[in-house]
Amino acid sequence: MYHKILIAIAPDQGPEAKAAIETGLNQLEEDGELHLATVVSPEGTAFFPHVPEQSPEELEAGARDGLDLLARKYLPLNRNAQLHVAHGEAGQALVALAGSLGADLLILASQGSSPGRWTLRRNTAEYVTVNAPCPVLVLADSESRDPEEG
Question: Does the pTM of the predicted model rise above 0.85?
């Protein structure tokens, strides 16, 4: 069990966000802290780009609103999560955030490869797993799981 878990998800994720939050809750101590995060860049591209070509303020506000919606949708009523919108290059931003929070576990939720969605970039996942100050769990997207395996 972990005391402080950081989950990196996209505000517009559906099944992947739900799976990541459920996984995080299953690994979290009863009095533990749950943190949800996404990364945006000032240029309008993001680790999880959900709306291109917005001002940095609009992009951050949209990301924060999306994270809030996911938290309200997938967290039990007796649980809450702190929301974080980090800026910059995704891997570096997630590693820095995990370090500043003192996270015990970092969960990366991959996105599917359907049109209009980005997959979790391999170089980002590799950077995070090599440089994170804590264990990293990379969840496969729901589209890549074998339906026979559940």
Answer: no
**Burial zone of 31 (CB within 10 Å; 0-12 exposed, 13-18 middle, 19+ buried):** exposed
Query: Judging by beta carbons within 10 Å of its beta carbon (0-12, 13-18, 19+), is residue 119 exposed, middle or buried?
Result: middle
Q: What are 107-134's pLDDT values in tens digits?
A: 998 654 433 333 456 678 889 999 999 9
If 0-12 CB within 10 Å is exposed, 13-18 middle and 19+ buried, where does residue 120 land? buried
Cα(24)–Cα(6) distance, rounded to whole angstroms?
8
More confident site: 146 or 75: 75
